[in-house]
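Exercise 3.2. Students should predict the tertiary structure of the chain below and write it as C-alpha cells, then compare their answer with the key that follows.

Predict this chain's 3D structure.
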Amino acid sequence: MKRSAQEIKQLREQLDELTGTGQLRLVSDQAAGLHPSDLADLIESLAEEYRVEILCMLPTPLASQALVEMAEGEDR
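Answer key:
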C-alpha cells in the first residue's frame, strides 16, 4: 500500500537519522515494509554512499521491484 506524502517525509527524516549514525540494518528493516515505488523514492533520496548498501540488505524481490521503479522514474 502506498503511503501518504507526509508519512514518506517522516520516514525519510527517520532514515536520515539512522544513516547518519550508521544504523543501516534498521534502515533496511524499516524500508522493507514499503511499497516498491515509495522505497524507490526513498532510496533515490539517500546519500549515494548508502544506496547500494541498503539495496543489498533488502529481500531480493523487493530490491528488484524498487530498482524497476527507479528505472521507470528515469524514463519519464
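Discussion points: Residues 5-75 form one domain. The chain has one domain: 5-75.
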